[in-house]
Amino acid sequence: xxxxxxxxxxxxxxxxxxxxxxxxxxxxxxxxxxxxxxxxxxxxxxxxxxxxxxxxxxxxxxxxxxxxxxxxxxxxxxxxxxxxxxxxxxxxxxxxxxxxxxxxxxxxxxxxxxxxxxxxxxxxxxxxxxxxxxxxxxxxxxxxxxxxxxxxxxxxxxxxxxxxxxxxxxxxxxxxxxxx
Length: 180
What we know:
The chain is mostly beta strands. The chain is 11% helix and 44% strand. It has helices at residues 75-79, 103-106, 170-179, and strands at residues 7-16, 23-27, 40-45, 48-59, 64-69, 85-89, 110-113, 117-126, 133-138, 141-146, 152-156, 161-164.
């Protein structure tokens, strides 16, 4: 059985779609069309990851898709899954270039700003739709840095370092008090 630590969250089952067991799922990804050939997922049900095989998937707008799982052929069976999270194994993630990273992998990375130098460690990525933020701990002080391409210089996965170019004035807003 797969554990959550070896998987990433793909999205969740949002609602029923019709009355014959089809479900509307939300794919919490940059490009949901990457999953148009998805064959199976793990559904978190009763705190366990259970494999489900897809009979069909139809990608729609705004990150949603309509799916039919094998053996889920009634509204009653489908209702049991609404609200459940969907997972895939980490090894299914495509490789990224040196300035891109997946949210789950950034936690614990040291952050070095091009101008200021070391500014702390990523404690988590806050996934606000359309505007994710890196939460960085700088000696007990929280810094929030937008995770946008123009602010990420590169990522050194081997040494767990994230090189950034913070927007002008952002770090000073958080750190000026520290220097006085």
